[in-house]
Amino acid sequence: MFRPGKLRDPSTIPFLALKLTGGKKTRRAVANALGDLGVPEALPILIQLENDPASGVRTEARVARQRIEKMLTSSGGELASSPSEE
Q1: Which residue has the higher pLDDT, 68 or 3?
Q2: Fewer CB within 10 Å: N-end or C-end of the chain?
Q3: Full set of structural domains in the chain with CATH
Q4: Residue 17: HSE in the Cβ half-sphere, 13 Å Cα cutoff
């Protein structure tokens, strides 16, 4: 199975963003893949998915965002606060 997030390549973000019109399982998989990327460029889409109608998608997006934030803070990367935390 192709897992774009495991590539850790931010250039896969536009491909993943195209899948946001899919069903809830697809949107949940997108959130997971974005979390696997571990790059700050994925945060805007994850924040958007935290408002998804499906609770499983919202949960996966929140967990993925937290994983990225943890990776960034543990690596000393600068992380601006997200709108959901203001």
Answers
A1: 68
A2: N
A3: 8-76 (1.25.10.10)
A4: 13
